Structures are given as C-alpha cells and as structure tokens.
Amino acid sequence: MITLSATTADTTTPITMGANIPSKTIEELEHILLHPDTYIGSIEKHTQNLWVYENYEMVHRSISYVPGLYKIFDEILLGATKRDSSMDSLNVTINPEVNTVSVYNNGHGVPVGLHKEENVYVPELIFGHLNYDYNVKKTTSGRNGHGAKLTNIFSTEFVIEIADGRRLKKYKQVVIC
Fold first, then answer.
1. Domain locations in the chain as residue ranges
2. Core-most of 46, 85, 104, 127, by most CB within 10 Å?
3. What's the CATH number of domain 66-176, 3.60.21.10, 3.40.640.10, 3.40.50.12280, 3.30.565.10?
4. What is the pLDDT of residue 80?
5. Residue 16: pLDDT above 80?
6. Where are the alpha helices (DSSP H) in the chain?
7. Could you tell me which residue, 80 or 58, shows the higher pLDDT?
C-alpha cells in the first residue's frame, strides 16, 4: 500500500502542501495502473531511428514502438535468464496473430512449494505479489522486485508454468486481467 502524503523527519505530523492537495491512500496496484510511466516508462507510441535485426542483418531505420511494452518484454526476459546458472537454452516465441509472447528456459526453475512466511506458493509470490527485497544486490534490470509482476499486471492473460525437477512437481497458474 502506498500512502500519498508527506511527513516531517522528526514527527508524524503531515506537512501542509496546500488546501487543494488532499492526502490519499491507494493500493500499490492501483498506483501502478494510474501511473504506468513511473514503473515501465511511457505508454505512448514513439518513433525513432534504431538498429534492428531484419532479414538476417542489422539495419538502422525508423521504427515506432511503445517504450512501456518494450520494458515489460525486457523484464520478463531478464527474469527468465538471471535466476539459474544451469540454464543453457532460452526460447522466445512471439505470435503477432494472437498477441502472445511465450518465454521458456531449461533451467532448474522456481521451487514449487509453499513459502514459509507468506503461506502461498513460491511461483505465485514471485510472479503475482507486489513485494520488495532491498537486501538483494541488483546486477541487471529490475525495479524493487516488480519485473515479472509488471508484465503480469499489464497483460490481458498471464500464464505461469513451472516444472520443478528437484522436487518433481509442476505448477500452473493462469491470471486473466
């Protein structure tokens, strides 16, 4: 939950910011949806000259894209590659006819079991709950543990399928937004 109000450093007395600026408490999900640019960048179409891979070569040309869509694609790819050093294969399938992106890796995967403190399955916690871990050193992208969760939030359907080879368990969850 995010509380939109300011307080002084030495007291909990709210700072008066003006009569027309109310203090409001909103859920974090609502904040993300109201202010997507804060989390994923612009959701407006941009056009610029970029290097793109086309017909088996790199070409520099004008392209149009939505930076926020690029960011959630980037987040899900980074999440699929940074958790497991045993992974040696990443398969990304983009189907523009049905607007789907599927990401598969062959690593050990996320453990399938109940999280001790949260009492929910670990994949649900990783991919669906907004949480932070400030003790984790960031080596790539990421925004306070929001990576795959942002992809989930901005998708019309988000499917999690995990095979946990160590525990011999499978997990599947479908989130329809």
1. 2-34, 66-176
2. 127
3. 3.30.565.10
4. 85
5. no
6. 28-34, 36-39, 67-82, 122-128, 147-153
7. 58
